[in-house]
Each structure stands twice: as structure tokens, then as C-alpha cells.
Amino acid sequence: MTRGSVAIVGAAESDLGEVAQGTTPADLMAQATHRALADAGLTLGDVDALFASSTQLSMATLNLGEYLGVQPRYTDSTQIGGSSFVAHLQHAQAAIETGRAEVALIAHGSTQRSQGRSAAAPQELSPYEAPYRPMLPVTAYALAAARHMHDYGTTREQLAEVAVAARAWAALNPVAWQRKPLTVDDVLDAPQVCSPLGIRDCCLVTDGGGAVVLTSAARARDLARPPVYLLGAGEAHTHRHISSMPSLTETAAVQSGAAAFAQAGLRPADVDVVELYDAFTITPVLFLEDLGFCANGEGGAFVSGGRIAPGGEFPLNTNGGGLSYCHPGMYGLLLIVEAVRQLRGDSGDRQVADCDVALVHGNGGVLSSQCTALLGAEATR
Amino acid sequence: MTDTAPYETFREYCRRGKLGHQETTDGTPVFFPRVLAPGSGDTELRWREASGHGTVYSTTTARPRGGEPYNIALVDLDEGFRMMSKVVDVEPDAVAIGMRVTMRMESLDVDGEPWPVFAPTEAAT
């Protein structure tokens, strides 16, 4: 695939937080689609490829096509957890480059808050793990955090800095779910869920959805908004269940990140804003290491001292992340929406200055699937 | 396919008080039990009884709302495979990475059948 051959031309959230009773995941996908198409200056009639995933819809593009009245010529309901939508970017590029599609819609919707998480996101347990009653997914991430702390001396305070920075960014985002100030002590003193992770180390449980629209770079230049080019992408996975993860302190982001940087011809130092899937406070720490922003074991120190908070030298998760902004079951699509806004200069109070290259990194399952994309504004083409 | 599902063979080992696992023709341990070896595709997997000695690779104390805290651990068996289990006989928070542990069978709430759990090696002898 070719660097910059396709571009995101529309991006939007659905209603977020807690939606009206009876709202379906398809309602939210459709609402976000309407907004994303309006953003692009396109209509439903232009869409000929559908990409979607939801914990509540095992055949998500069928629901999406039915609801929208779109009969696509390319369809992909790839479900690899919260990273799915970052994978869809690369899949859409493949479809468009090979002429199998011209305008691709990627959508997500979740009503896990209003419907209840156990009903909206049932866990598929391994029969070899189930007898030990893991509280999934948090148990898996807690095991990774405990091992990272053991191997590298990472502290609970360092993990708490991730949550504190996310909250500070969320305070700048009018649609974030949690905007009240949060301190390191608040995180440390919060009730424990699975040691070493407490409730403030865990992402939100909210409703929400989003949509992005992609087309060829050539067509993108004639549309309403500045194109956001897909410069590089990579996808990789290592396991389904945490007991099969090869190393708890190294994820497949090593592979997905290397592939994305290679395709883009960029290095970590070239990235202006980073959006990493923060399902739990340990995940950005792992991904910063695995993507090459710091060395193995240095993630805890890297996120400390307000470095990733507003005003810090490394703007990370600028919408407030899954920890404080929104976590609708699978967060990956909203990573892309925020990166698009930053690259267009649309992020208001939380806008990062001189933002030409963004990295989005999605995580799925229990650190299982890892998908990385590098996105760029016109200047980086 | 095999006449007996890998899972059922594993459970049969448990009922006999043994921790069953598989091994490829070149001696590589395989767990969880499968119909072929991951990577090579080798279907000549042999069942083996593990010694039951291992080391805690990671550990967490789960605190369910309204319930008692309990341990969940990943244990590296000396034979070279990893499994999820729990460490018993000590407080859940006292379980530490690197702790030497020994397997025994215990009935778990899930089905009242024997499942492998681990106790600190000193306490088990």
C-alpha cells in the first residue's frame, strides 16, 4: 500500500456519555455517520464500503447497511476488540487502492452504559481460565501492571499520572464525561479493583459511537475539509487470553508500530500528537515503550511530572482518553476522531500547536490485538 | 480429529490428581491443550504429567464488589509452560512474583470438580 493514497475526509462522534433509554448501537452508528458525512460534504449515496464493529453486534456492517439503506460492494465487520477501527483504516485503504471501493465508512456504536456492561460486552472466557474467576478485562491488565512494576520498578504513582493527565485534558473537552480535577492521591486512594489497579486506573463505562469517512487522496482534495492522509498503518496480534500472552511487558505494538513507521517513512520524533488506547493506566506506558517513544521499562518515568498533561512537552490523549472522556466498550474509533481534529486544528482549548503528524494506537482484547496508524495533514504529504 | 477432546483429556488428568499438558516431538511444552502444536502444526502431541512445581510469573488480588478478595496468578511450570491459576494457603496480597509454588488439586466453585491450584512450596511440604 502507498503512503498517503487515501485520506480521512469526515469524522464525528455520536452522542456520548449516557444516551436516551432504548437507543440502539445502530442508532449511534447512524447518528455519527450523518455527522461525519456532513463534515465531509458527502451523502449516503456516495458510500460504497462499510466497516464496523461492536461488542453488541456480531455482524455489525449488516446492521449498519440495513439501518442506513446502503448496499455496499465491500464489507468488513472485523472484530478484534477496541483496536478494530484502526485496523479498518488499513483495510479500507486496501479496498480503495485496489478499486473495490471509493468511499469507505467506518462506524462504531455502543450502549454499554445504559444497557449494562455485562449484557453489552459479555466476556468469552477460556475454559482453562474461567475456574479461577478472572474479572475480565481488568484482571489481565492488572497482571501486566504487576509484572511491569516487578521488572522495571514502575510505581503506582507513575501509573496514576496517566489518569491525572487524562483528567486535565478532559477538563478542556466540553463533551468529556469526567471533568472534575483529579490528583495522584485521588487515584491511589480509590477503591482497588485488581491490584495494583484501582477504580481510577480503569477506563470509563459510557455509551457512545463515532464514524469516519475515507476516500482516495485524489477525491479528498475536492471535498469540504482539509484531508487527513493515512501515512502508514500496521496491525498485529499475539494471543486471545492473557495466559497465552508471550510477555506481559511487551505487546504486539512493537510489530504494528514498526510497520506503520516504516510505511510512513517517519520516526517517533516526527510525531506531534499521540493518541493511545488507555483502557487502563498501564496501557499507555506499555505502548510508549513498544512504539519506540522510550526504552523498555522507561514508560513510567516518561509519563511522570506532568509531561503528558496539557502544557507538557508530550501531548498524549488530548481528548481525555478512555479514562476521562469516553469509553463506549471499544474506544478505538474515537482515537481517530481526535487525531483528525488535532491535525485540522479543530480541537479548541486542547489544540496542540503546529500539529502535522498524529499517531493513533488501538488495543483490543486483553493486550491482544495492536493496531497503529500514522495520520498527516497536507504539509506531510 | 481425536476421539477425545483435548479439554476432556486435561480434565481426566485433573480427576486423577495430575496436571496434564502436551509436548511436541521435539520436546516443546504446549499449554493449553490442542489438536496441533502452535507454530509447527505438528499433530503428534504427547500428553505428559507436569511435576507441579512452578514459579509465580504475575499475581493480582481481585476485589469484587460485595465479595471476598481472592488471588489470581499466572504460574510458569518448571516444564516450561504457563497457566492461569490461584495461589492458596496465604493471603492473596502475600502472593509475590517469583514465589516458588507447588500444585495440588482443589474443588472449585465452578463445577465442584478438581482443578489445579498452587500453594507456596514451603507450606506445601
| Mean of residue pLDDT values of chain B | 94
Helix/strand/pairing category of chain B? mainly beta
Number of strands of chain B: 8
Tell me the greatest interface: A-B, 28 and 28 residues
> Which range best describes the helical content of chain A: under 10%, 10-25%, 25-40%, 40-55%, 55-70% or over 70%?
25-40%
Give a verbal description of the structure:
Chain A is an alpha/beta fold. Chain A contains 14 helices and 11 strands. Chain A has helices at 25-40, 60-68, 84-97, 112-115, 117-120, 138-152, 156-170, 184-189, 217-220, 253-264, 282-290, 299-302, 321-325, 332-344; strands spanning 6-13, 49-52, 74-76, 103-110, 192-194, 197-198, 208-216, 228-237, 273-276, 357-364, 369-376. In chain A, strands 3-2-4-7-1-8-11-10-9 form a 9-stranded mixed sheet, with helices on both faces. Chain A has a two-stranded antiparallel sheet with strand order 5-6. The model of chain B has no long low-confidence stretch (mean pLDDT 94). Chain B is mainly β and 125 residues long. Chain B is globular, with a radius of gyration of 15 Å. Chain B has helices at 6-15, 121-124, and strands at 20-23, 29-30, 46-49, 53-62, 70-77, 82-85, 100-107, 114-120. The chains are: A alpha/beta (381), B mainly beta (125).
Report a brief summary of the structure:
Chain A has 381 residues and is an alpha/beta fold. Chain A contains 14 helices and 11 strands. By secondary structure, chain B is mostly beta strands.
